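Contributing: when you submit paired examples, paste them exactly as shown. First protein:
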Amino acid sequence: MRKLHRAALLCVAAAVSLTACAAGSGNQAGQSGPAAAPGRDDEFSLTVWSNYSGREQDEVTKALESFKQKFPNAEIKHEGSQDDDKITAGIRGGNPPDVALSFTTDNIGQFCSSGSFADLKPYLARDAVDLDQITDAVRAYTEYKGTRCAMPMLSDVYGLYYNKDMLAEAGITAPPKTTAELLDFAKRTTKKAADGSIEVAGFLPSMPHYANNPQIWAPHFGAKWEGADGKSGLASPEWAQMLQFQKELVDFYGHDALERFRAGLGQQYSTDHAFHQRKIAMMVDGEYRTAFLADQAPDVRFGTAPFPTSKPELYGTGFTAGTIMGIPKGAKNPGAAWELIKHLSFDTEAIIGLANGIKNIPHTKAALTDPRLEVDENFKTFIDLATSDKLQGNPVTPIGDAHIKSISDFATSWQSGKVPDLMAGLAEVDRRIDDQIAKSGK
């Protein structure tokens, strides 16, 4: 599961369709008041859609099956390789699932402001749920302007991965803490062939690529998405510094050489991933990569650390995103759907089991400190980031991820040398984002 992500990179949808005549069929999503819950011994069927596959789908299925401890007569069918587009089509076509799980936290503003996902506050109030159980950054990216239309299911936290052998070969004894050090270490660990082609990149600066996304990089430069006036605030010294950092490394490699190198790299979640194949020495990625490395590249000696920052006082900052769960508009059995969401949101045993299974970060404070959570040296980096007060979540707007796409497209043009004036270009991106939000009517 890679919210964002895999968040902005991989969309995951899980839907729960509850059929059969159970007590608690109750009100439909979107009607006034919370729908009644099913009785413990009622029979109902749950169909879960998700974009999980392979070992992750198996682990999520185990978590779903744990729901039967509370509702033993529930039948659960988990179908993988589904996505957000199918959820949207289901809502529009009047045949939505009853629960939707999505990795696309960028879309929470759209889901909440449009009413695509039901407001969960009536359920939370009825069941006296204490949201303080959830860490602050995770709470922030699962609601929009006071509307809570989703709940979290685990989270991802991003940091630095580095190949210990490659850094040691370059005479580097500790991972970089500042972006200036990252530039230096990237150049020292890069290897080029006699013809100038890149054999190993110390740090790949291309954006977007792998987890190189603006929302993941921005916190480490102190870059904010909004200005004091509430409008898009990308035309700032911090965003400019982030893109100048990127461009310096692109220029070091040469844009064309870098593109040729990048074209030969494996996909993000394949065994041919560049870090697995020792093609890059350092990268930003989520805690889930520890499981992929253990499974697909056990011989790679790696370490993890907080990602370097532009200023020393920012060190220890981290970005987080995660799976979100909601009840789509028109759901047939919102009462039972809420019970499943509540189970996956707050049952510590279920959260710990799933976190251990797919190596994601628990989203509740209790699970983060539970001794049953499997934490080795490399995973601890992300646990420490998750429990710090420097963790930042996804920017939330009513236009989904359109603002992220705008700055990503700009970064692509910038790194290729097509932007003559950086600040003027960023101001134009701000204008486009503000226009899109204004047109959304939200």
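Second protein:
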Amino acid sequence: MPSVAFPPMAFGFLEKVALPPVRRVKLAQKGGESIADVAGTVRAAVLASARLKALPKGSEIAIALGSRGISKIPVIGRAIVDAVRELGLSPFIVPAMGSHGGGTAEGQVDVLKKLGLTEDALGAPIRATMDVVDLGATPQGARCKFDANAAKASGIIVVNRVKSHTTFDREIESGLVKMVAVGLGKAEGARSVHRTGPTAFLDVLPALAEVALNAAPIALGIALVENAKKQLVAIEGVAPEDFFESDKRLLKLAKSFIARLPFGRMDALVVEQIGKDISGAGMDYAVMGRADLRSIPNPPEPFAARVTVLGLSEATGGNGLGIGLADFTTIDVVDKIDLQQIYMNSLTSTLVEKSRIPIVLRNDLDALRATVSTSWSSDDLSTRLCFIRSTLHLEEILISEALLSEVEASGRASAISEPFDLRFSPEGRLLSRAYASDEA
């Protein structure tokens, strides 16, 4: 795994920084009604597909699964496989994740494995390749590339979560359309989308999806929506001609469930984990307030003067994309980052800012002291400081006393502890965590 070594530098003045006491706070997020029978709902959607039912028995069906940590995705994948076989068809899996996994077939299989998507779990073979076929050009001149194994199938089932994009707003963001244009386009297709920068998502991505939908044997989409608790609240089978309208409609529903902090401005935000399973950009800008793209302004709120990252999720597998959005991190974090993966993502997406390495300090304690001392607060103890597990997990947070009145005034949060001092191991590792169950 390509990485870089950072020296454990010490700065004596940081030892004088006082970290403010924190309280544990419970947040109320919009829940909705979760789907009780996920496998049954998915099975019904597959069995209802007119295109699949019209195919000759024994026809091969490619099931496109991506790199996101979708709730119950092994259950969903297995239910699709079983339903396809029930129709008398022959299923196989293709990784549909653009350039993720370091842009290699083996790396993409490994990404699926980390999500619990193995051949044994799914009951079907995985056929991974970075080879693509060319399906034609868009009006803008972009070439539509498409997974070679999927293109040879008699039918394709596209599976994806519909959600907001991790960088900016538009009518269609992450969903079935993006999976067709980017995920199934592999690394070459992803480069076609990103080549001209963020505006490509408005013009090039939809056009590439149109070409693929007209030329590839796409038979069905399985569209998924989660709430803030990572529960599935919508599962729909979508005919390919309805991908665009379905994405628009379900995106509005998905955005109504986005978890948010109960305040707009912070002096400092500490993120315990980032990862591709959490957000495509490691951290969701709608929660932490930074996209940091030169061509697109950050939203005025939420705003954090300083952002610190203290870890990577296990499922991200060394893909620390998004670390460039932080101001501080630790040697432990950068030691776990696979530079090949984050550089591949940035070179493909052209969003190079997200792979830059911030100031790297020797441990959590030093990183937090640096965060507080540079956060522009009037003094250490009055710092408006917030700790979150990740931008996806916001049911519990830790806040300093300076944020308490605003949290209580929001009407959707309440303190569930008295103030306490942050705890650290002798090596300077943070032991206090946003979720009490995560504490060492």
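If you have annotations for the second protein, write them as plain sentences, like these:
The chain has a mean pLDDT of 91.
Residues 173 and 323 are 22 Å apart (CA to CA).
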